[in-house]
Specification:
The protein is mainly α and 228 residues long. Helices cover 83% and strands 0% of the residues. It starts with 6 loop residues before the first helix and ends with a helix.
Length: 228
């Protein structure tokens, strides 16, 4: 397990990876790379997510334990994509971030996308899904203190996460259709995607309402028992 000992380096990685490196890899990959090379971009995002995760812990044993829990949450997200219409991936990513931190949330969101797409279909859109679900988890971790204190705020965040996912994915829609970004096409894509956006928001709210209490209780016990 990679261990980053320098606090300054860890702090730099926590900022650079989710807000600079991964967005740049995703956008540049969509614009400059041939569609047949999309898996290279997705793998680059996955490696970046793993680096971010490694920056989130100071002790090797603690990081290993967190990785085991993250693997379980990714597996649950993978299985959740087989549920028709409403998907629990964002909700499970958010729950992970609330109890294990922003870095774990980003990793669960991004790995869930690339791994499940080996079944549902890889493509240039995979990196955008990884970015979207990763950021949803990352910001949930940053807001964990407030979201854990208020179930209403948690559900509101879930709804907002559904909107954010749609907004990010529609960037890919415009780039794919227009071979470049156009604000008018982007606005049109947002309007066209309203039914899907609503389904994302409703799905997040529903699964957070149902899953946050039981999953949160179990994750909290694991944190205390194993010192994660």
């Amino acid at each position: 397990m990679l261990l980053i000992k320098s606090k300054k380096m860890r702090d730099m990685i926590r900022i650079a990876v989710p807000f600079i490196a991964v967005p740049m890899i995703t956008i540049v990959g969509a614009v400059a790379f041939d569609e047949k090379k999309h898996i290279i971009i997705s793998l680059a995002v996955a490696v970046s997510a793993l680096l971010l995760f490694a920056a989130g812990f100071e002790k090797k044993s603690t990081g290993t334990r967190r990785m085991v829990i993250v693997a379980v949450m990714v597996a649950l997200c993978f299985a959740g994509r087989f549920i028709p219409f409403l998907k629990p991936i964002a909700a499970l990513t958010i729950i992970t971030a609330l109890y294990l931190g922003s870095e774990a949330g980003f990793l669960v969101g991004s790995l869930s996308a690339i791994l499940s797409n080996f079944y549902f279909g890889q493509g240039p859109w995979t990196a955008f899904q990884m970015l979207a679900w990763g950021l949803i988890g990352f910001f949930a971790g940053l807001l964990a203190d407030r979201l854990l204190k208020s179930r209403v705020l948690l559900l509101i965040y879930g709804a907002a996460a559904g909107l954010a996912y749609s907004f990010i994915m529609d960037i890919w829609t415009v780039l794919w259709y227009n071979q470049g970004f156009d604000i008018n096409l982007y606005l049109a894509a947002l309007v066209t995607a309203i039914p899907y956006t609503v389904s994302y928001a409703v799905s997040n709210v529903l699964f957070l309402y149902l899953l946050a209490p039981p999953f949160g209780e179990k994750l909290q016990r694991i944190k205390i028992k194993y010192g994660v």
